[in-house]
Design goal:
This protein is α/β, with parallel strands linked by helices. It has a single domain, classed as Rossmann fold (3-Layer(aba) Sandwich), CATH 3.40.50.720. The chain is built from three helices and four strands; from the N terminus they run E-H-E-E-H-E-H. Helix 1 links the parallel strand 1 and strand 2. The chain starts with about 20 loop residues before the first strand and ends with a helix. This is Oxidoreductase YKL107W. It comes from Rhizobium favelukesii.
């Protein structure tokens, strides 16, 4: 694979970014990398919607919450319907789990890691994709 010489890269320090007015949804933003990203984005001025099970950042400026069990496809579909896709500039999918040594199945009968890592992400993104695409077309 050859490097595309028309693309140039430059390092940007995250603290130099002004994200004021940017609307971001972090799917799986209640822990780990997602929570850290949500905090960083909010500190830089973005309005962040965190989607997950347990919200610990109610006092954090610029962060709001949508409760959902992303292990369940039905909840992922609900999130897609309730997410304000028309106003979002960015959606980050960070939901994930550490797979355990024993197979676990959700209440819907789907293997838990598959439900969270693939089914929920696919369900939530494809349901809102048409809205996001329309918004993108209107912005150009």
């Amino acid at each position: 694979m050859q490097r595309d010489s028309s693309i140039t890269w430059r390092r940007i320090e995250k603290n130099s970014l002004n994200l004021a007015g940017l609307n971001v949804a972090v799917i799986g933003g209640t822990g780990g990398i997602g929570r850290s990203l949500a905090h960083d984005l909010a500190k830089q001025g973005a309005d962040v919607l965190v989607v997950g099970q347990t919200f610990r950042d109610a006092e954090t400026k610029n962060i709001s919450f949508l409760k959902a069990d992303l292990n369940l496809v039905i909840d992922a579909k609900r999130v897609a319907d309730e997410m304000p896709a028309e106003t979002l500039d960015l959606v980050l999918m960070t939901a994930g789990i550490m797979a355990g040594p024993k197979r676990e199945v959700t209440a819907e009968g789907i293997e838990r890691d598959l439900a969270l890592s693939y089914s929920a992400a696919t369900s939530s993104s494809t349901r809102s994709l048409h809205v996001l695409a329309r918004v993108a077309r209107n912005r150009t």
